[in-house]
Amino acid sequence: MQPVSYVEGDATAPLGDGPRIIAHVCNDIGAWGRGIVRTISRRWPEPEREFRRWHAAGQADRPFRLGAVQLVPVAPDLWVANMVGQHGIVTERGLRTATGYDPAAGPPVRYEAIRECLTTLVTHATTHDASVHMPRIGCGLAGGDWAEVEPLIRTTLSEAGIPTTVYDLPASR
After folding, report:
1. Where do the Macro domain residues begin and end (predicted)?
2. Can you count the helices (H) and strands (E) in the chain?
3. What's the first-to-final CA gap in the chain, in angstroms?
4. Which CATH superfamily is domain 4-164 in?
5. Cβ distance 159 to 124 under 8 Å?
6. How would you class 4 by CB atoms within 10 Å of its CB: exposed for 0-12, middle for 13-18, buried for 19 or more?
7. Structural domain boundaries of the chain?
8. Alpha carbon distances (Å) from 124 to 35, 71, 117
């Protein structure tokens, strides 16, 4: 079992050498523009472009749905993993999904979808002999609880021996 490392820093500037995957959670309605994706889009246009294309048209081998992962190359030996682990987005009117608003709905995080994404990510990381780098996925705009997400990382990536680093932004940001 590979322990999860925690560092202060920016997940979009992953530490270390060799192949690396930056993992983050996306929503299932195709919205992009808040949270870590802002930094991703400032660094590389490909993940946003490919996410929007995937949402609009799907892919024959990987339909756009909760639990799906899209691996987007952004540099030699560096990929961004768009992981669909959030149902809708939170707005002032409540949870917005593809079918409308639900002011009484809970947070959009979907833990089982994140587990499925991480399980898929094990295959990608193993295939590319890559380490995985991420913020506290599912716990920002998705409204998740790290006490629920961290065990998902341990039972997927860690148990598969994938070196995984979780990044916390410095308090001054």
Report:
1. 1-173
2. 4, 9
3. 33
4. Leucine Aminopeptidase, subunit E, domain 1 (3.40.220.10)
5. no
6. middle
7. 4-164
8. 24, 8, 11
> What one-character DSSP code corresponds to residue 2?
P
Q: Are 8 and 168 in contact (CB under 8 A)?
A: yes
Tens digit of pLDDT per residue, the chain (173 long)? 899 999 999 999 999 999 999 999 999 999 998 889 999 999 999 999 999 999 998 666 778 999 999 999 999 999 999 999 999 888 877 778 887 887 777 899 999 999 999 999 999 999 999 999 999 999 988 889 999 999 999 999 999 999 999 999 887 65
Helices 36-43 and 46-57, interaxial angle, to 10°?
110
Helix locations, the chain, DSSP H: 36-43, 46-57, 111-128, 146-153
Neighbours of 129 (CB within 10 A): 10
Nearest to 109 by CA among 91, 88, 94: 88
Tokens (6 digits) for 140: 């920002």
Residue with token string 């993940």: 47
